[in-house]
Amino acid sequence: MKRQKKTRKMKFPSFLKGAKDAVFERSVLILVLIVFLVTVVFLGKAFLYRSDYFRLKSVEAKSPFFDLKTAHAISSQILELYHGRNIFRINLKGIADSLQDAYPDAKEVVARIALPDRIAVTMKFRKPVAVVRDGKLYPVDEEGFVLPSMDIGSLKDLPVIDGVDIRYDERRGKKNTSGNLKLALELLRNIREVRPLTEYGLAGIDAKDGKNLSFLLKSGTKVIVGSENFKERLWLLEKTLKDPRLVLDRIEYIDVRFNDAVVGPK
User: Fold this and answer.
1) Considering 101, 125, 149, which residue would you say is the last residue of a domain?
2) 138 with 183, same domain?
3) Domain count of the chain?
4) pTM higher than 0.85, yes or no?
5) Cα–Cα distance measured from residue 242 to residue 258, given in angstroms and rounded to the nearest whole number
């Protein structure tokens, strides 16, 4: 009868056993850490969303163009809708979009949380730089947005731009897509950058012909400037106006589209 051979258990080297224990300990530590973090997040979220400490109590509306009455009206309207609601559950984007619709001449509307129980609303409005004459007068900003809620009477010192059509759908805070208006506003910006020209005053810009823009000085003199190289042509104009022999009241037009200015007497 044959004897059965005894099987020997495989023994791991001591350094492998130590590594196995280290991996196990690290896994337990990571698991404990994950459970701890999940618990903290859960309790923190519960505190933020359920605590009375974060319920809306006041709204602050700010803008350089607001009077106290307008600011109070906006604050009261938002507070009436959301008073007592958890501030983290309030639709801030919805508030901003609603105000943008109510004030289409606003360039930027931001509603943000001001901890612990307040919402701050900041509004930046577009500033008119000229008025477009198309049947009526429409104030526009430097980007060509039509500003619907401006008082035309307060804009009498702004230059008038002729030759641009304002579509019906652009009359409520939308951007005018006319290439002629874009050129006219670019010309206006360049005129204001040439400081010596400001003393002559700008009455208006004629943008009917996009290839041959012209503008009118306060004296009534017409300046033909074309559609390009505004800066160089305006410096030529400034140089021409400095000529002591030039009597502006007797000048019908000055054409600066060429290397030398062409002066037309009345």
Assistant:
1) 125
2) yes
3) 2
4) no
5) 18
